[in-house]
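Hey, can you fold this one?
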Amino acid sequence: GSGNVAYVAVDERFAGHELCTDDQWLYGIRFVVGDGLIKGSYHPTRSGQRAYAEAFAAFLRRSAVRDALTG
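Sure. Predicted structure:
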């Protein structure tokens, strides 16, 4: 049957801001000294979070999505 899951692509918004670029919007591997844990690795930077928010907002503004959410 159909589910209530949707995929919101952000690859076009992140173009030019991938890992290892001069203006990357994701953190690389981050080690916490003493813990041996990796915290925050590959999480978005402030600019990356903004790009995700804009992508989600654009998705939610689509009339079909709005109608499905409001019944």
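The chain has three helices and two strands. Let me know if you want another pass with a different chain boundary.
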